[in-house]
Amino acid sequence: MKLIIAPRSPKSRKFPITLSLTGTPADIRVETVQAAIAKQFPQLSTDRQRLTIDKVALESDKTLAEYGLKDGDSVTFKDLGPQISWRTVFLIEYGGPLLIHPLVYYLPSLFYGKDFQHSWMQTVAYWMVMLHFLKREYETVFVHRFSHGTMPFRNVFKNSAHYHLLSGLNLAYWVYGPWNGAGTALGERSEAVVYGCIALYAFAELSNYHTHVTLRNLRPPGTRVRNIPRGYGFDLVSCPNYFFETLSWLAVSVLTMSWSAHLFFAVAVGQMYIWAIKKHKGYRKEFSDYPRGRKAMFPLIS
Q1: In this model, does residue 223 exceed pLDDT 80?
Q2: Which of 75-79, 219-223, 263-267 has the weakest average pLDDT?
Q3: Model pTM?
Q4: S-S: 244 plus which of 84, 131, 207, 287, CB 3.0-4.6 Å?
């Protein structure tokens, strides 16, 4: 069959083109069309292609017939630009705090103009943050299986700003400052508060890791298979990983009582809630037997 690839921009010098594809609309998948475009234009890898019909993006594993396409029809092409793998993006994002926090913590004279002794609260907060992001790096390399292989390279700067600035420089500078140092009123915490925050943090981080392993095991290697997650945490909410991460940052926020930690907590939870609502709606739309009693992110609430 023949399929016309029309450009989204009227100024395109490469398109439109007509592809001659072997098979019928019921046999030919969208990924076959993308491969044919990449063969004709090697710089346009399949990851940077977006094909649409009436602004509806075509999924690579579906057939042309599923979108009602027939011989001689056309689809719209958009070049998404240079791509970067999501795994690399995550490594860059989480690597920022892992670099910034030790610099601020161990080199106070560089940031505050003097050396001083850190309080117990500051030391515990430091290791909470470091272990959290070390865990995230480990999960990125050994646990996560990504449904989308890449993202536009230009977005890496926007995505990294959240981690490098808010949970990196902002959190480190204001939490590890001399005003919270040993012997200061702001740095003092009771044993009950410190150990309570450590317990909440440990529970949340281990639970968050467990949910990530559950999600990983739902998707066979090299596939984009989606199934209904079940078990620990998932019986209550669609995104327990976000809920448990909320508890982790709540522990850091309560322990430090710093406005910078409160700010990051509010922004992070707000963003995770937006993601959770989107995923929750996606699950309910995709699976007719999806458990109706589940909430999106907060058990029994929303």
Answers
A1: no
A2: 219-223
A3: 0.84
A4: 207
What are the angstrom distances between the C-alpha of 171 and each of 141, 252, 258? 25, 10, 8
CATH 3.10.20.90 in the chain: give the residue spans. Answer: 2-81
Beta bridge partners of 52: 57, 76
Beta bridge partners of 262: none
The dihedral formed by the CA atoms of 81, 84, 85 and 86, expressed in degrees to the nearest 10: -90
The CATH number of domain 2-81 is 3.10.20.90: yes
Q: Which residues contact 120 (CB under 8 A, 6 or more apart)?
A: 182, 187, 189, 194
